[in-house]
Structure to design on (225 residues):
């Protein structure tokens, strides 16, 4: 299974863009990168996913490097409600299991 | 459309007691998963199911059993609870992995304490 590496914590000022990096250097060619977040102790919430092209939805943008060894989740205008733990996950295996690491704790401040 | 519903939301067990956690989804998903999350850690996969009548072991299956008798339900059983099983349990479901780019939906969790 491909592993991911994320910084343990990051801070971001409200209204600014939050850029969360993820390294997945062992990713296979047909594996997708998924991002989830977990607010307090709620169930993880899907944010976005991608294969090799950059993706954007109403919540965030996902930038994947050309070699696919790393990616960046961008929250364009962070708010206090975006304070959460963000997980970068490579979806792998025939059962599409999601393997969670320890994620990045994003603190959005005034 | 309720999504993924977990029952109960909270439970306190004594060591050695048994219980069953119920996960129900109304999205006609093929795949279902049980995770546990300990304080300060990410989620770890306990068991999963790729369809009705099938189950498989995940990363931390010891001490747990599961059943998927109906497509919409995935049960997690603790036959003899131990304090080490104190955790928050999350259920998730998704479409079949032939569509690998489909998202998984999570329930809101069951907080279990074993004393």
């Amino acid at each position: 299974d491909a592993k991911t590496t994320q910084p343990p914590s990051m801070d971001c000022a409200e209204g600014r863009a939050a850029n969360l990096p993820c390294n997945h250097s062992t990713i296979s060619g047909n594996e997708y990168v998924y991002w989830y977040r977990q607010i307090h102790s709620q169930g993880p919430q899907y944010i976005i996913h991608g294969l090799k092209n950059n993706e954007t939805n109403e919540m965030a943008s996902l930038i994947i490097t050309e070699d696919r060894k790393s990616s960046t989740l961008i929250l364009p205008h962070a708010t206090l409600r975006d304070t959460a733990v963000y997980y970068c996950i490579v979806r792998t295996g025939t059962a599409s299991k999601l393997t969670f690491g320890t994620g990045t704790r994003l603190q959005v401040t005034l | 459309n309720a999504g993924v519903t977990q029952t109960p939301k909270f439970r306190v067990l004594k060591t050695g007691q048994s219980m069953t956690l119920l996960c129900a989804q109304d999205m006609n998903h093929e795949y279902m998963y049980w995770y546990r999350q300990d304080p300060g850690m990410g989620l770890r996969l306990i068991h999963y199911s790729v369809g009705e009548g099938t189950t498989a072991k995940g990363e931390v299956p010891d001490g747990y059993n599961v059943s998927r008798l109906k497509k919409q339900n995935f049960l997690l059983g603790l036959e003899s609870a131990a304090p080490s099983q104190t955790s928050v349990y999350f259920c998730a479901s998704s479409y079949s992995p032939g569509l690998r780019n489909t998202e998984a939906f999570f329930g809101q969790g069951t907080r279990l304490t074993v004393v």
